[in-house]
Amino acid sequence: MKILVVGPSWVGDMVMAQTLFMCLREEHPDCAIDVLAPEWSRPILERMPEVREALSFPLGHGALDIKIRKQIGRSLQGKYDQAIVLPNSLKSALVPYFAKIAKRTGWKGEMRYILLNDIRKLDKTLYPLMIERFMALAYPKGEVLVHPYPKPHLEIDPTSQQQALTIFNLQKDKPILALCPGAEFGEAKKWPAEYYAKVAEDKIAAGWQVWIFGSKNDYPVGETIRNLLPNEQQKHLYNLAGQTSLAQAIDLLACVSAVVTNDSGLMHVAAALNRPIVAVYGSTSPQFTPPLADQVEIVRLGLDCSPCFQRTCKFGHYNCLKQLKPESVETALDKLIHVKQVD
Known about the structure:
The protein is of the alpha/beta class. It is 32% helix and 16% strand. It is built from 13 helices and twelve strands. The chain has helices at 11-16, 18-27, 42-45, 66-75, 94-98, 130-135, 158-167, 193-205, 219-227, 246-253, 265-272, 319-322, 326-342, and strands spanning 2-6, 32-38, 51-57, 82-85, 103-107, 118-120, 176-180, 209-212, 237-239, 258-262, 277-280, 296-299. α7 packs across α10 (246-253), α8 (193-205) packs across α9 (219-227) and α8 packs across α13 (326-342). The longest helix has 17 residues, at 326-342.
């Protein structure tokens, strides 16, 4: 059986989609799974053994361009028995329709009755987690998902990992704290830089080193964190945000001893590498997209106005983040480190 999955457009969602691929392989052990997704996602998909091939989708997030979608669809005709469409947009279902794939599965989303012929109506109370909404599409309608759920697991190639360490002149001679202070979604997910700096300062004083991860947009906040440290500590902080490729970031994150992160794509990458994680939640909720690692501490205030799932705070105060002080995160981090040492 050959299955085409139309993948999501966000890093974290792509990582969580591996739970679907795992379920498909369980349901159809000999199936071949190809994923049509943006080119940036290739380093993630290449680290998922369930995926046969990553097919590059050339259009950016939000672009319609029916002509290109029709061309891609026609190029895929006759190659697949089933398509599973993970995004809920109408346009995301066009390629499988143009490819004339016999079975086209997905949630109803934007009124996709013609484009999908195995259409599901989402019951959010039955499937509160995003991974449940992905996993359910691997099975016939109404089938109950069986616990425990699979967890994403990205495989690491030691050779490429060592190359990344060499390129950035990094050593593993001291414990490594990874900080992920960015979030592409918006400011309402970003814990203050000065709080990250306090955590970094205390860990460096305890003999650790700190690696900062993120996109090029996160490089300035990484420098802010560095500049908030005492001068003698700054040499122990490595700002890798925007310096690494996604592939290198994955390989390097697999080296770290613990992670402090916003609710972001890199949080899910770190979870899929099974790193101990302290996850800071502000405008979003761990009841929908929790990090799926074995050792996780969730830190959030649970104010009356959160989760609001907004990119920016409608009140302008960002209290769900600003009132969450570094001491709470440090306590959670120390708990994780103690558990790891006991293990």
